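User: For my dataset I need records formatted as: sequence, then structure tokens, nothing else. Please produce one.
Assistant:
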Amino acid sequence: METQKESGGPTPQVDPTTHYATPEALAQDDALSLERRRVLLEQWALDARAQARATSENMGGGPEPMLDRVLRALGRVRARQ
């Protein structure tokens, strides 16, 4: 998934967990636009779903899945848009 810069060009996908310890911290970062927070939380949710799937298939090994927390934070950001 690529995101679009305001100028219309693609921006590389980033891993929000490299910059934020929790989805709540990302959702509360007023330095980012609501749209950017939403995009990053959606990416985090995709990653959390993949991790949950891997864990359920006995292929875990990464950090504990935070899907519920990510989805709650995403809901709060979407409600503000």
